Amino acid sequence: MDYLENYYSSYREDERLTVRHGQVEYLTTMKYIREALNNDKKKNVLEVGAGTGRYSVALAREGYPVTAVELIRHNIEILRSKLSGDEPITVTQGNAMDLSLLADNSYDLTLLLGPMYHLYTREDKLKALTEAVRVTKPGGTIMVAYCMNEPTVVMYVFGLNRVQELLDKHMLTEDWRCISEPKDLFELIRTEEIADLDSELAVRRVKLVATDGATNYMRELIDGMDQETFDKWMDYHLSICERQDLIGASHHTLDILRKL
User: What is the pTM of this model?
Assistant: First the structure.
């Protein structure tokens, strides 16, 4: 996991979700988290791959009991630095594919908002998903974030004129599926692959949501908006983020599942 340690030791994850275009993903995800929790402070939350705590700390400050599991020690240090000591949060180091430190059927809401970005085989993805389902209470909610294939093809492969380079490196399939390895840092996926993973789990899909939609195609424009215009952009985005004809074009998606 050295590649992840090196990346997150220098990458400022908080800034990604606090700049205006990054707020779209954060605000959208928090909307669906709050819907699942329904302002019931007795509901407990597990975040697997909590990063620097953008979600975990916010939820703990709202009074929800939170368990934050994070792989990267550097991220854990930043997360803990944000805490006053009064928040109902437990922070521990752990791996999404092995949550044996946690008991079965323990959490009302389980979040995987980062681990699937860095798991490159179907087997590893299913390990993480199966563990998340295991520790969630029957009837509880699991939310899983993914990075999508098509925006990368549009903006990185074609947008940066790297088509031939990536074809020569065998990083694209004939049907334009990006092939990632750990050194590439991020794994990309398509909606049908998410559905295939879900079919192996004792869950029912509630929703598949485009958490940033068209936002990242127009970052500079979004970042330059005044507050009133940005609020209208959020209204528009939230009105279309569940449209299934647009999901695969979003940079990030949120798969919302209910444990059977």
Answer: 0.94
